[in-house]
Amino acid sequence: MAGSIDFYFDFSSPYGYLAAEMIETVGQRCGRGVNWHPILLGVIFKTTGAQPLTMAPMKGPYSEKDFRRSAAYFGVPYTAPSVFPIAGQNPSRAVLWMQQHHPEHAKAFALELYRAYFRHDRDISKLDVVGDIATALGHSADDVIAATQSDDIKNRLKANVEAAIAQGIFGSPYFIVDGEAFWGADRLPMMEQWIQRGGWSY
Fold first, then answer.
1. Could you read off the pLDDT of 124-136 as tens digits, one per residue?
2. Whole-number Cα distances in Å, 130 to 40, 57, 184
3. How far is residue 1's CA from residue 69's CA, in Å, rounded to a whole number?
4. Going from the N-terminus, what domains does the chain have, and what CATH number goes with each?
5. How confident is the model at residue 172 (pLDDT cuts 50, 70, 90)?
6. How far is the C-alpha of 129 from the C-alpha of 135, rounded, in Å?
């Protein structure tokens, strides 16, 4: 059976949001499942020496324009959040808990968190916002909030980020399929062709 697509994303990444809106459709067209992996770019940047695009000299104004342009290109609704970037620990931990206890809802939950931030300007780093989104999907806000503060979930997220770094994952979104890595929402068409053609020499 063909292997799944591993999708690594940070909740503060606009390009990660765009990919989250499209990756399942790509997977369906290619006959591949998709495994969603929340990561923390802030931790990864300590290893790579990178920084958020909007904070980088000269890249900031360009990236802000490109976020909007890319969303329009892909036909994905986008509103620049008033607080950017944000810490992704709480939404990431909540998704890990959902994957563990209600896996059938985990992807929808992650996507709704992304939409809350990049469509509706809700600060998903705040636990009450994460809880509200969980409640809207029929889950207990108290359970989700409590889970984000548990040592088990904190350690799982830490382990996930360490594993991502060990694999050389340095950005969001980042995809690995059949051992081949692709970085960026703009690489989705290339990745789809790679899967459908069985790769190519380069």
1. 999 999 999 999 9
2. 17, 32, 26
3. 37
4. 5-197 (3.40.30.10)
5. very high
6. 10
